[in-house]
User: What shape does this take?
Amino acid sequence: QVQLVESGGGLVQAGGSLRLSCAASGRTFSGVAMGWFRQAPGKEREFVTSISWNLGFTYSSVSVKGRFTISRDKAKNTVYLQMNRLKPEDTAVYYCAAAAVLRAQSVATMVAPDQFDYWGQGTQVTVSS
Assistant: This one.
C-alpha cells in the first residue's frame, strides 16, 4: 500500500507562485506515473499534469501548460508541482495521485482519475484576484 501526503497549498495573489509537494510512503514507489488533479467547487476532478516515474516524461493540460511544472525526486519518492503565474481560475483542491500500473496506451493518455490507484488527501490552493 502507498500513502500520499501533499503539502504546500495556501492563499496567493493572482500572478504569484506556489509549490506543492507529494511524498509517497509505505514502500518505495515503483509504479508507472504520478500526477496532480484538481477539483473546484461544483466541478469534476480534472487532470492537471503527470510524470512517468522511470523516464521523467511530463504531460500537462492545456490550461496549465507553460505555467505549471511537474518534477520528481525518485530517491525521496516525492513529486513536486511548481505553479507560476497563478490565476483565480486555478483555485481548487489539488490532489496528488499515483498509478501502479499502466491503464492506457501510454502515460500520456492517463488523464482520468480512475486510471490512478492511490490518492492524497488534497491541499487547498486559493488564488485571489
